[in-house]
Design a protein that fits this description.
Blueprint: E1 6-7, H1 9-26, E2 32-36, E3 42-46, E4 49-53, E5 56-62, E6 76-83, E7 88-93, E8 96-97, E9 99-100, H2 116-133, E10 143-150, H3 153-157, H4 162-165, E11 167-168, E12 170-171, E13 179-180, H5 185-201, E14 208-210, H6 213-222, E15 231-233, H7 238-247, E16 252-258, H8 259-266, H9 281-290, H10 295-302, H11 307-314, H12 320-339, E17 344-350, E18 356-359
Parallel strand pairs: 7-10, 8-12, 14-15, 14-16, 16-17
Antiparallel strand pairs: 1-13, 2-3, 4-5, 5-6, 6-10, 9-11, 17-18
Length: 364
């Protein structure tokens, strides 16, 4: 069965912002708008409503999770757009959009929880609307204030990890792809098996396993000779993918990961999704102590809000090399245990810009 894709809260906010901008500048409400996705494609989004709201226009979109619904599925995402004195696009968070109160997230403390990629996507959508509605060159002097709102956002946020992360007052506006890929465990596991079968048939000796598209892209950038057919995005299926690698008799495997997933793999979690495998930063702090970090650093790691915050603390320090080695050694040990035989396991650890923080000798 083909699963239906949906779109992210970032895409919903972008479409609402574009519709409101078009209505404000042309006087005509839109029933659909076409928006650019972060992955480079475009998508037509239906507009729930677009209406005059004082000296502004308010437009709304119903977020569609496709066949992978989460708590934001069917949430109403709004954008209120009005002219302002400052030229360009000013983006704000309104009711139902959370505010960041702790460090360790991609958004600074005190700012609305609109992640960097959706922020760019919303700004681009409004800029496109300006270009479509006005004569060439006329848009340069226009200033617009865009406020994103979410109906029942505070209520929805209680069902997410936002309270634990210190995001208060609403949900986050998220999405690095712009679309929501339907996530069926059985379908995903079948994809992993099929990819490994293709690798075996093509003579690939070292499968490259990554947790998603970005880590795969970074791995292939770091190893330009790695063909696409040698890679498979295994998401959170750590144990399952290693078991399937073992069943096919591969003698080596290479993982491309980010810090949070590496810590979970080092802890031996079979499935690393946040819903079922909580990141234990207390254990990480203990490993930091084993690597010689000062006690106050270990305490800060144990009390960190996220893996990103812990990494920001640790990565500039000389002893981080020893910690990264410990983590990859432990993760490789868990991988071999899940695999069922003694194969060579390599790791490449990336930061979120694609910089290699650490790689094992097997990855060279």
């Amino acid at each position: 069965m083909t699963l239906r894709h949906g779109f992210t809260t970032g895409t919903a906010a972008s479409a609402a912002a574009k519709a409101a901008t078009m209505h404000l500048l042309t006087g005509r409400a839109q029933d659909h708008v076409d928006v650019q996705l972060p992955v480079g494609e475009r998508m037509s989004i239906a507009i729930l409503e677009s209406r005059i709201d004082g000296d502004a226009v308010m437009a709304a979109v119903v977020k569609d999770g496709g066949d992978d619904p989460d708590v934001t599925h069917r949430a109403v995402i709004r954008a209120r757009v009005q002219r302002c004195a400052e030229s360009g696009v000013t983006l704000r968070g309104g009711s139902g959009v959370g505010v960041v109160t702790r460090p360790g997230l991609p958004v600074a403390v005190g700012m609305p929880a609109i992640n960097p990629v959706p922020r760019e996507q919303i700004t681009l959508a409004v800029t496109e609307a300006l270009a479509d509605a006005l004569a060439p060159g006329a848009s340069e002097s226009i200033g617009l204030e865009v406020e994103i709102r979410v109906d029942r956002g505070e209520e929805l946020a209680r069902k997410t990890f936002n309270p634990r992360l210190g995001i208060v007052g609403g949900i986050s506006i998220l999405g690095t792809r712009g679309t929501v890929k339907p996530f069926s465990n059985a379908a995903y596991q079948a994809t992993i098996r099929q990819c490994l079968d293709v690798m075996q048939a093509c003579g690939v000796t070292t499968p490259c396993l990554t947790t998603g598209g970005r880590s795969e892209r970074f791995l292939r950038q770091a190893r330009p000779r790695t063909p696409e057919t040698a890679c498979v995005q295994v998401a959170d299926f750590f144990s399952y993918s290693m078991r399937e690698v073992g069943r096919r008799g591969f003698g080596s495997v290479l993982w491309g990961v980010f810090f949070g997933k590496l810590v979970k793999q080092a802890q031996g979690h079979r499935y690393t999704h946040a819903r079922s495998a909580e990141l234990d930063l207390g254990i990480l702090a203990g490993w930091c102590a084993d690597c010689g970090f000062d006690q106050h650093v270990c305490r800060e790691v144990a009390g960190a809000n996220t893996a990103m915050q812990a990494l920001e603390l640790l990565s500039p320090m000389p002893r981080s090399k020893a910690l990264f080695t410990l983590l990859t050694d432990r993760a490789a040990e868990a991988a071999r245990a899940f695999c069922g035989h003694d194969l060579q396991v390599g790791y490449m650890l990336f930061d979120f810009t694609g910089q290699i923080l650490h790689q094992t000798p097997e990855a060279a």
